[in-house]
Design brief:
The complex is a heterodimer of chains A (240) and B (318). With 240 residues, chain A is mainly alpha-helical. In chain A, helix 2 crosses helix 6 and helix 7 packs parallel to helix 10. Chain A starts with a helix and ends with a helix. By secondary structure, chain B is α/β, with parallel strands linked by helices. Chain B folds into 2 domains: 232 residues, Rossmann fold (3-Layer(aba) Sandwich); 66 residues, 2-Layer Sandwich (Alpha-Beta Plaits), CATH 3.30.70. Helix content of chain B is 39%, strand content 28%. Chain B has 12 helices and 14 strands. In chain B, strands 6-7-8-3-9-10 form a 6-stranded mixed β-sheet, sandwiched between helices. The N and C termini of chain B lie far apart (49 Å). Classes of the chains: A mainly alpha (240), B alpha/beta (318). At the A-B interface, helix 1, helix 5 and helix 11 of A face helix 3 and helix 4 of B.
Chain lengths: 240, 318
């Protein structure tokens, strides 16, 4: 556990800590857009709309892509991976440290953006009482965000192991995530309208569907993480 | 348990038996059998692509052997690779430094990996960087450093956790001569001070001759010979003379190359280094040079070098 934390500390230091203002530019831009500009444009709906939970659960997935690709493909590209593998760290500590760093980064930036958005909307669009995200929305954001981030981190590991460069890993991962997100939406559009209208579930069914979807996603995550654990082995990394 | 611990402590630093590694159709290492005692600098000498880096990767458990076995510090590379890595340090083909971090943070990071306490880590970093004249530059980003400085820092990283064994893969490769000499001196001083066993790969013969107590020559994945440098030098059978003088011309070099008593000839400044077929050929060679107008100052016998042995071993295989 301590080893994985040490690896995560290294990733964060490399990503942001030691690059001065440049390291923080991406984060600040993200917070500016998702924490100030979009909330002020959308007003109270940014907090009260039930859709916001689903929308925000996607954000960590995109944030993970850049960090995880750099953590593995970047480390190989910069010729530091082999030295790291020659250390006393276990394969799992390295893998989970890198995944944890990416997920932690995405989670932190998302949480800060949500909080800044909450403050911005409450300051500009005061409607008497304090506006807060609803509990179901927070639950969907947390569960969806974590499941999505873990999934992308594990898929990112698998793609980065095969990618020649960071750019290639980021492009492939970005493309794969877009395809995964857009494919269900496109599929729904292709379904007959009469068939869709017959499927109007009530709120109880929505909860059931949500639980089933989360359980299925968790199973999928477990499978992809297990695959990444199998693939991320010293002998394989060097021989490949 | 005590017997097992004693075995680990008294075993050779490295022992391999028929160690081989195949990459598809290419045999990178072919039946390496070797025993390296503790506490020495062992030089693993060979041209590029001869299997040196593969050997280090196999010994560190970063690659699996196709056949054969290896023990490092008494631990099997197949089953106890983690124990080997815990007790070893490594400077591999690339120095592996994080260029976005400063020098001290690069070492601190690896100190954390080895779970050295914060106070010990700081003291050790200061000690190593001071010995390598890098302490004043500890807060600088490594990205702006010269290759020589990076190699020094990587050596400090390899020694940080006081390992029993250090693998150094061509530590002076790509350095200018002055930086290489400095690094070699630092390396020699530090390893002697730390009492560590060093497995050093190089294709620099002078480096091996200067640093190593024992040298193994590898070519095309096969170990050709293992011996102390002095013993290897004695294996050189070609008589060599060094002729110092002035007025050397290209015509004279052509004459030397065509001379039936000369194996090879090369000029190094004012010194002509000539390998002869027989020691008795020296008089005819000198006479021929003088007749062409060469101003002779000194003629002296020269001992064969490790280079001669290395070339003769490689040539013998061809």
């Amino acid at each position: 556990m301590m080893d994985a934390i040490a690896v995560a500390w290294k990733e964060w230091s490399e990503q942001i800590g030691q690059r001065g203002f440049r390291g923080y530019q991406g984060i600040l831009l993200m917070i500016l857009v998702f924490g100030i500009v979009l909330p002020l444009q959308n007003g109270p709906a940014w907090i009260t709309s039930p859709i916001i939970g689903i929308a925000w659960s996607w954000v960590p997935m995109f944030l993970v892509t850049t960090v995880i690709a750099d953590a593995i493909a970047g480390e190989r590209e910069r010729h530091t991976l082999e030295t790291l593998l020659a250390s006393c760290l276990s394969d799992r500590a390295i893998l989970f440290g890198k995944m944890g760093a990416a997920i932690g980064y995405a989670g932190a930036v998302t949480a800060i953006s949500l909080f800044v958005g909450l403050v911005a909307v409450n300051l500009v669009h005061r409607q008497g009482g304090l506006l807060l995200y609803g509990a179901p929305v927070v639950l969907v954001m947390c569960v969806g965000g974590v499941l999505g981030a873990v999934f992308v981190a594990a898929v990112g590991v698998l793609i980065s192991l095969r990618a020649a460069t960071v750019r290639q890993a980021q492009q492939t991962l970005g493309g794969a995530i877009m395809a995964l997100l857009l494919a269900p939406l496109a599929a729904v559009r292709l379904l007959p309208t009469e068939w869709l209208s017959s499927l109007r579930p009530d709120s109880a069914t929505y909860v059931q569907l949500g639980v089933i979807a989360a359980a299925a996603f968790a199973l999928l995550d477990a499978g992809v993480v297990a695959l990444a654990t199998v693939r991320f082995r010293r002998a394989r990394l060097i021989a490949d | 348990m005590l017997t097992s611990l004693r075995d680990h402590l008294t075993s050779p630093a490295i022992r391999t038996d028929g160690l081989s590694r195949q990459f598809g159709a290419v045999c990178a290492l072919d039946g390496l059998s070797l025993e390296i005692p503790r506490g020495i600098i062992f030089g693993f000498l060979g041209p590029n692509g001869s299997g040196k880096t593969t050997t280090i990767r196999l010994l560190l458990g970063l690659l699996e052997a196709t056949s054969g076995s290896a023990e490092v510090l008494g631990y099997d590379t197949r089953t106890d690779a983690t124990a080997i890595r815990e007790r070893s340090g490594a400077l591999l083909e690339h120095c592996g430094l994080y260029e976005r971090l400063n020098a001290a943070d690069n070492l601190d990071l690896y100190g954390r990996f080895w779970q050295i306490s914060r106070d010990h880590r700081r003291a050790r970093i200061r000690e190593l960087l001071s010995h390598l004249d890098l302490w004043e530059r500890r807060d600088e980003m490594v990205a702006g450093w010269s290759r020589g400085m990076k190699q020094k820092l990587a050596i400090a990283r390899a020694l940080l956790h006081r390992p029993e064994l250090v693998f150094l893969d061509e530590p002076t490769a790509g350095l200018d001569p002055i930086a290489a000499v400095t690094l070699r001196d630092d390396l020699s001083r530090l390893t002697a001070r730390e009492g560590v066993t060093v497995f050093l790969t190089t294709h620099n013969l002078a480096e091996a001759e200067r640093l190593c107590a024992l040298v193994g020559v590898v070519h095309n994945g096969k170990l050709k010979v293992v011996a102390p440098p002095a013993q290897l030098n004695a294996m050189s059978e070609t008589p060599r003379v060094e002729i110092i003088g002035a007025g050397l011309t290209e015509a004279m070099m052509e004459m030397l190359r065509a001379h039936r008593g000369v194996v090879s000839a090369r000029a190094d400044g004012r010194c002509l280094i000539i390998d002869l077929k027989h020691a008795a050929d020296v008089s005819s060679v000198v006479a021929a040079l003088v007749s062409l107008g060469y101003h002779l100052e000194t003629v002296r016998n020269s001992a064969g070098s490790l280079e001669d042995v290395f070339h003769s071993l490689v040539e013998a295989q061809r």
